[in-house]
Write a sequence for this structure.
């Protein structure tokens, strides 16, 4: 199908899905001056967004949503026919979670959304996928939407993956470092260049390619980031065994511009709604395509990442003298990283829950994620401040490196705890500062701390599985 002559001067933009990705994309497109209609199948979510209320925490986004619902440039609807009636370009921003027990991504929401839209289109349209999908999805979608669209309606499907980070979503959308346009026609490229005209003028690099490459670019980027973190964690393990310091190691290798400093932070490892599931989905797709090496490399990345949680728990047990049963522990942080209230596959919350399972009395404090953490782990205790969480604790574990937590004053915090003992699972604190204030400090792979927990005090795998 072709979109010959379609490129409207001021395309009206449709967005399907109002999670982190869709809401941010819709609000940012309105900020760039477009009329935007965003659709979600949940009427409750639509009502909240229309009232300018975000169903999740994301810095700067609520203000944009309120500004553009007020200006009239941004509307929310639960009916996809509303999009079909007015929009020229439709961005697919629905979820692609890990499918059940397997490793593959579940793309059913992508297909359902695109097919529902195609069925009510009354004019030619460009559907642009932004969700993270297995390579080959666009090709299958083209067939699906073509079957559903009325005769004479031309629909093209392009892929324009999103690289935004939670916590920086608005800035990453308005000022991305690159735009990857996976298109099958010059007309689709022209339309997308119109949509992003200001972003391109402000310096974003543009890569024009085919949809399959665009799909793969996204998962490759996340898999690479995950691999980089796991490499840092392996070096941390080596440093710990050898009495060396992983923070100095990372700083030193990062000075090589071919390596760079980012994503070399050793500690509790990666989590969230993207890196873990994208890594696994890539393994599953590589298997389908018969590329065996991918499973070997990326499988180890996933395994090492999971083992960081176990290592953190082992260290907590060792610091508590061989058992955490009956020990009062403060868990500082529950979100999978700072800047978000997202607790999906959060290593921080997983560690807090497993310490509780081992018999500890765990009190969690997170600056923004307490509510989501409570919904996921209702049996944990929660506190309204870091100080309250630390009251009478014999171990404090820093699990998410929020600035508020990294800035805590060790001298002041001593007054709240029973034993001044800090396990810094993110290597985010200055060990000397805490030690000078009388704290026992333990990081990960740091020479300023004591080396490996003794074999005798290690928790058995059996105990950890319980
Ligand atoms: C990630 C990618 O960074 C985005 O580019 C991508 O668009 C997004 O996934 C997505 O696919 O939608 P995000 O999940 O928001 O973004 O989180 P990151 O900032 O990438 O952090 C991921 C995890 O890595 C966090 O748990 C973080 O704590 C951990 N991490 C990060 C480390 O353990 N060490 C580091 O040095 C850096």
């Amino acid at each position: 199908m072709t979109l010959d002559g379609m490129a409207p001067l001021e395309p009206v933009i449709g967005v399907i899905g109002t999670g982190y990705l869709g809401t941010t994309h819709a609000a940012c497109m309105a900020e760039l001056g477009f009329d935007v209609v965003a659709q979600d199948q949940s009427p409750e979510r639509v009502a909240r967004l229309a009232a300018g209320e975000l169903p999740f925490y994301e810095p700067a986004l609520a203000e944009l949503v309120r500004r553009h619902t007020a200006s009239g440039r941004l509307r929310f609807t639960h009916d996809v026919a509303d999009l079909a009636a007015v929009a020229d370009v439709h961005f697919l921003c629905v979820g692609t979670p890990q499918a059940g027990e397997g490793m593959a991504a579940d793309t059913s929401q992508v297909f359902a959304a695109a097919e529902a839209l195609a069925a009510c289109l009354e004019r030619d349209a460009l559907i642009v996928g932004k969700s993270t999908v297995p390579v080959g999805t666009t090709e299958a979608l083209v067939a699906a939407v073509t079957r559903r669209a009325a005769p004479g309606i031309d629909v093209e499907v392009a892929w324009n993956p999103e690289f935004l980070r939670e916590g920086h979503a608005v800035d990453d959308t308005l000022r991305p470092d690159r735009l990857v346009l996976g298109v099958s026609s010059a007309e689709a490229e022209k339309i997308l260049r119109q949509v992003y005209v200001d972003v391109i003028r402000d310096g974003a690099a543009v890569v024009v390619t085919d949809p399959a490459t665009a799909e793969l670019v996204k998962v490759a980027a996340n898999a690479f980031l995950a691999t980089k973190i796991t490499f840092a964690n392996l070096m941390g393990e080596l440093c710990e065994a050898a009495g060396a310091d992983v923070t100095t190691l990372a700083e030193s290798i990062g000075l090589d511009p071919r390596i760079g400093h980012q994503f070399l932070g050793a500690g509790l490892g990666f989590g969230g709604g993207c890196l873990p599931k994208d890594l696994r989905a890539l393994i599953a797709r590589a298997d389908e395509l018969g590329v065996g090496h991918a499973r070997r490399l990326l499988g180890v990345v996933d395994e090492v990442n999971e083992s960081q949680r176990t290592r953190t728990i082992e260290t907590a047990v060792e610091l508590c003298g061989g058992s955490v049963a009956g020990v009062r522990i403060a868990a500082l942080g529950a979100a999978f990283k700072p800047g978000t209230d997202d607790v999906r596959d959060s290593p921080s919350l997983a560690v807090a829950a497993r310490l509780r399972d081992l018999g500890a009395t765990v009190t969690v404090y997170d600056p923004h994620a307490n509510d989501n953490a409570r919904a996921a782990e209702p049996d944990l205790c929660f506190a309204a401040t870091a100080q309250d969480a630390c009251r009478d604790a014999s171990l404090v574990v820093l699990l998410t490196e929020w600035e508020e937590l990294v800035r805590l004053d060790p001298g002041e915090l001593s007054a709240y705890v029973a034993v001044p003992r800090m396990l810094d699972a993110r290597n985010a604190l200055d060990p000397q500062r805490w030690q000078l204030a009388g704290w026992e400090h333990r990081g990960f792979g740091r020479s300023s701390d004591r080396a490996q927990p003794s074999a005798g005090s290690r928790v058995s795998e059996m105990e950890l599985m319980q």
In short: The chain has 20 helices and 14 strands.
